[in-house]
Amino acid sequence: MNSFVKNIAVASAVSLMAIGSAGAVSAQSSGDNASIKVDTQSKWRFDSNRHERRHHRDDRFRFLFGGFWYPQPYWRGYGLLIPRLSCGEGRAIVRDRGFNRVRTLECQGRTYTYLGHRHGDTYRILVNARTGRISDIDPA
């Protein structure tokens, strides 16, 4: 009976590891930014020569991780993860601001460029690729 319990425990542990690794593979293949953060958070370690941290939050130390406050989210990587809007999301932002027949001109770099119509006039609209903020509206 004792060996039966051990065999069941081993089988359940193996099945849980298989389920966990399958979940990790599916999370990585989905391309979701949250899954990338989880992977980098598990591998990141504090280095006193490179990083600063405090026990209390202030104007400079704004990011909480593992019970400490940091001035930058080091655990996300150093410039490796830059979330951006998709071209379609930028177009939807422009459309939500009251422009009709929105057409994409360029979706590369820091700003996306669109053409949109409002009240019979055509405008060139620049959208920040990271924040989604409309930075400029010029008549075309």
Structure description:
With 140 residues, the chain is α+β, with helices and mostly antiparallel strands. The chain has two domains: 32-83, no CATH class; 87-139, Roll (Nuclear Transport Factor 2, Chain: A), CATH 3.10.450. It is built from three helices and six strands; from the N terminus they run ααββαββββ. The strands form two sheets. Strands 3-4-5-6 form a four-stranded antiparallel beta sheet, with helices on one face. A hairpin with a 2-residue loop joins strand 4 and strand 5. The longest helix is centred in the N-terminal third of the chain and has 28 residues, at 2-29. The model is unreliable at 21-40 (pLDDT under 50).
Percent in helix? 25-40%
Return the domain count: 2
Which architecture of the largest domain would the CATH scheme give at its second level?
Roll
CATH topology of the largest domain: Nuclear Transport Factor 2, Chain: A
Structural class: alpha+beta
Helical stretch tally = 3
Instruction: Give the uncertain stretches in residue-range form.
Output: 21-40
CATH uppermost class of the largest domain: Alpha Beta
Instruction: Name the helix and strand elements from N-terminus to C-terminus, one letter apiece.
Output: HHEEHEEEE
Annotation, overall tally of beta strands = 6
Strand line-up in the sheet with most strands: 3-4-5-6
Return the average pLDDT rounded to an integer: 76
